[in-house]
Amino acid sequence: MKMSVIQRSEFKERLHPRIKELGFSLNRLKKSPLSLIGLSLILFFLAIAIFAPQLAPPKYSHNPYRIPRDGYSAIPRPPSPEHPFGTTEGQYDIYYGVIWGTRTAFRVGITVVGSILVIGIILGSISGYYGGAVDEIIMRIVDTFMSLPTLVLAMALVSALGHSLDNVMKALIIVGWPSYARLIRGDILAVREEDYVQAARAVGCSNLRIILKHVLPNAIYPLLIMASLDVGAVVLTAAALSFLGLGAPVGYADWGQMTSFARNWVIGPPSNPLAYWYTITIPGLFILFFVLGWNLLGDAFRDILDPKLRRR
Amino acid sequence: MDVLLEIKGLKKYYPILGGVFKKKIGEVKAVDGVDLKIKKNECFGLVGESGCGKTTLAKTILRLLEITAGSIYFGVPEKIRKEIDSRKFQKLKKKHDLSTFKGKRLKNVRKKIQIVFQDPSSSLNPRMLVKDIVAEPIKVHKLANGRALRERVGELLNYVGLTTDHFFRYPHEFSGGQRQRIAIARALATSPDFIVLDEPTSALDVSVQAQILNLLSNLQKNFNLTYLFITHHLLVVKHISNRVGVMYLGKLVEIAFTEELFKRSLHPYTQALLSAIPIPDPEIKIKRMILKGEVPSPINPPSGCRFHPRCPYVMKKCREEEPPLINVGNNHYVACHLINK
Amino acid sequence: MKKLLEIQNLKTNFYTYEGVVKALDGINLDIKEGETLGVVGETGCGKSVTALSILRLILPPGKVEEGKVLFWGKRKLSVRDTGIDLLSKEEVFLREVRGNEISMIFQEPSSSLNPVYSIGDQISESFLLHQQKELCRAAIKEIEKNIKENSFFLKIFIYRLQKKIYKKMLDNFNSLGIRFLSILPLVNRYKIWLKKEATKRVVDILAKLGVPDPERVVERYPHELSGGMQQRVVIAIALACNPRLLIADEPTSNLDVTIQAQILDIIRRLKEKLGLSILFITHDLGVVTELCDRVAIMYAGNICEIAKVKELFKKPLHPYTKALMNSVPTWKRKDLESIKGNVPNLVNPPGGCRFHPRCDYALKICSREKPKIQEVENNHWVACHNFISG
After folding, report:
1. pTM higher than 0.90
2. Within a 10 A sphere around the Cβ of B183, how many other Cβ atoms?
3. Which residues of A fall within a CB distance of 8 Å from B172?
4. Cα(C295)–Cα(C316) distance, rounded to whole angstroms?
5. Which residues are within 8 A (CB) of C50 and not within 5 positions of it... i.e. 6 or more apart?
6. Average pLDDT of the segment spanning B48-77
7. What is the Cα C240 distance to its own chain's centre?
8. pLDDT of residue C80
9. What's phi and psi for B321, nearest 5 deg?
10. Is residue C260 within 8 angstroms of chain B, CB to CB?
11. What chains are in contact with B, requiring at least 3 Cβ pairs below 8 Å?
């Protein structure tokens, strides 16, 4: 191997301080039961998403997100051995829908949050570090976006762009980045005046280097906390849009889509109002626990990251 | 001896913005006209209390802050400075005045001037390993790479009394004194000629302070460094500097050789300052000069001599006219009407 | 001189993730009435922890493990011979002691003051907590004076009612009825008398501390004052109820030299006028020389040496004391000697005497056995095997 002995031991030694830090964080995680619950929920959903092909073998192999239909009747049928969670309006299999919907949820959540993180960080960093006119312009744009209610704006954008899950994601990205930009700008304004940033300037570091190596690593923690909380919120909003019919196309494996099917069947006939509980409750429970898991995880991040900063 | 750094008429004003349209309604005159010459290989001590502008002065020399007026000449030979003095060659001034440097020229100068900050816990990036912190100046100026870089970092840590075992640790794993050593190692990385030390021992314990001061003396001898040592602790400055300057409210009120200043201080503020130091020796009883009042705000400094509201020897002239800094012999400068009658 | 406070074998630990920090390892100190005891040590030696332990202000993860803090207070509560052990009393009792008999001032004046309350409110809080009966009586006297001077019958009626309320407050300041009355919008104007009395006393004490224009300062907020002024306010809060003991934890370390001179001057004058005992914690030997009668030197949770100030500077015995004195820059000193090594990690302190790894005079026994503090000469105590007999 090209790596000399010194370099390999360097690598191992280099790991050690970081591993120590990780150990400290995991230890704190252990102490908080809610964080463990959150973490287990997310791992549970992750397992479902990864093993979706095994848990619910796709009928249409070229497009596994098309939920198989067992007939064309509009009336949902209750859970049975062939359809473990029952079928919803149009005889779409609920079980299949929620299993593959997990993959959709992860895709939507992580793509949207990842994108708004990147956009927010770039624009917020430029705004915070350079200040002046650039800062004013970017902040006014942020203000404009934040003055409009997010759900309404997202609905308007999706209506304009056309109904599809991708457009829902684009709309959520456009609507979501301003708060991140504002948050990171605030943190950068604080970190910018710290002595070690001044020291880096005195050494002759370029502005880009200072932002990447000094400012961002220290300012990014509140953002990560917000991001993990937001994954849940984004999935919830996307589900809401799909529920209204503005999101994924009919028959797509998406939790919001499934709740959209249940719109007419929330309350059954007067003799048995809860007859079709499974159409709304099961997708609803999946959404609930997914969002709950991310919320608890975000709280856990806050708990482990804050004392770290405090310890420093 | 050659003058390494000359500051002429340096002013740093912070504007105060007020009103709906953020108009300038006043100024904080942090540094209000400072002239200073620091010679090569000397340690110049700058003392003053909080709010006198010494840290601001340090930061403007480093170009961490932009000055409002004045010039800074670093490493400019005397002949050229004399010519600029005569105001004939503005272009020449631009060529040499550090306060106007930009881009690559500024970056080059940064190799030669470095700074050590007061608080070692906040002057080191808490997320960087020690070896990266010390290596950064070398990387930025592309002075060494790979193995040579590693060796240089090890060398620097050895100079300040640390070892290569400390490469892979974070700053928070060290004590205050050790962190300050890391900061000093970082300052030495590019082999500078001039180091500004902004209260380097104020945040440290007494015995650690002694270690750091001894270290700084040794480094100065070994590497032919010039220091600007800023502190509020007069006994520390007495120990380490050759010459001392006393600042009050943005201006220099007295400059002298260290021995001279402590034996025969002339300015009333200096005398009050010296008499206020608690002496760790029960046999000595000093007559303490207690100044009345507080340090005035730099937004509205008093008219005439800035010290006059608190001066026990105030005369009528002091309220009207500002005393200039005059050489009263043996390179002892004072700005006081009483002395310069 | 009579004893005021005696600390016996105080041990305090902090339970952290990295392990148990043995901050105090059996401290023995005593302060006599009217004397100023200086406690000198560097960062991490445990001087602040000692002060907080005395007043039982140590919060988890810290815990006072062992020891007694005997206090001879000003009220007739104590059995004259043995004093009361503050560490074994209930919290309610301690609250009577804090601020009233033992006060504490801290290093940062700007963070010792609450930024959203005015200066007057903060100082009078002390009066309102500990001197309720006196304030009520004074308020009643004020009301009676006003009744005599006034002739408008409605006003007299209101005054009489308010006087009744104050008489009730004399019995029980915080009874349910009084608390109810203090919420009712118009009725709670009776509190004006209390406030007037308190403000009078606040102005009085600020004037004693040399604060210019105290009537206006009372209405100001902490951020409007300078550092020296804020520290004076902090001292005012501490001395409002005439405590017997003042614990000062590095009160002048953050102040400019000239302001520090002013504050030390004030403390010295108060010491003489009020007969105050002071436990003065600092790292500055010069301040100690000026203000203190006796000095205790601390290192890593132990007391190394206690002596009168003059004696200590003339003849320092403990190696740490000697090294400390040689590392302080003075007017005459040419070379500063530093102490080799570093302050030990208190999770795993060195065995035996905690200073022995850095000591130039270490003997074999120093690494095995911890030296007990002994009186080596007249009122000069050292904890060092080099001086212990037998």
Report:
1. no
2. 28
3. 311-312
4. 11
5. C7, C10, C24, C27, C29, C39, C281, C298
6. 87
7. 13
8. 59
9. -115, 140
10. yes
11. A, C
**Contacts B238 to C, Cβ<8 Å:** 329, 331
**Where is A155: in which H helix or E strand?**
helix A150-161
Q: In what order do the strands lie in the sheet with C3-16?
A: C19-32, C3-16, C62-71, C84-85
Q: List Cβ neighbours of B326 (8 Å cut-off, separation of 6 or more).
A: B333, B334, B335, B340
| A-chain residues near B136 (CB < 8 A) | 200, 203, 205
Q: Do C42 and B295 touch (CB under 8 A)?
A: no
* Cis amide linkage into residue C61, ω under 30° from 0: yes
* Cβ–Cβ < 8 Å for A226, A298: yes
Give B50→chain C minimum CA distance, Å: 7
| Alpha carbon of A303: minimum distance to chain B alpha carbons (Å) | 19
d(CA C178, CA C57): 31
Return d(Cα A310, Cα A294) in angstroms, integer. Answer: 24
Of the pLDDT bands very low, low, confident and very high (cuts 50, 70, 90), residue C138 is: confident
A17 pLDDT higher than 90: no
For residues B307 and B291, what is the distance between their CA atoms, to the nearest angstrom? 11
* Mean of the per-residue pLDDT values of chain B: 86
- All residues of chain A having their beta carbon less than 8 Å from the beta carbon of residue B117 are 195, 198-199
Query: Per-residue pLDDT for B183 more than 90?
Result: yes
Of C325, C329, C338, the CB nearest to B236: C329
Contact yes or no for A196 and B124 at CB 8 A = yes
Chain A residues whose C-beta sits inside 8 Å of any chain B C-beta = 10, 13-14, 16-17, 194-196, 198-206, 209, 213-214, 217-218, 311-312
